[in-house]
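User: My notes are a mess, but here's the protein and zinc ion's SMILES. Can you give me a structure?
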Amino acid sequence: MMHEMKKICPHCNQEIELAVKSYPMGSVFQMNRFHADIYRCPACQRISLFAAERNMVTCPVCGTSHPAQEKCVTCALDAAFGGTAAREKLVP
Ligand SMILES: [Zn+2]
Ligand SMILES: [Zn+2]
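Assistant: No problem, the inputs look usable. Here's the predicted complex:
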C-alpha cells in the first residue's frame, strides 16, 4: 500500500484530511473535466483543492490523457462523428 502524501493546512499548519477523492469539477458536458482531491482541515474546516493528476491515464487508442474513471472523450467523439476510431473495435 502506498501512503498518501501528507497535506498541511496553510492557515493553521494542521494535517488536513482527504474528504473527497478525484472530484470532477465543472459540467458533465465539458470535454476535459478537471479532477480535484478535496481536503478538509479538521481544525479550521477550510477546504483545499489539489489536482488529482495521478488518476490520469493515457488512452491506448489515441494517446489522449484522460481521467482513469472516465472514458476517453476523444475516442467517444471520434466514434460519434465517424472518425478513425470508429473503424476499430473499442473496448467499453
Ligand atoms: Zn486549518
Ligand atoms: Zn482515445
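The helical segments are 73-80.
User: Great, I'll file this with my notes.
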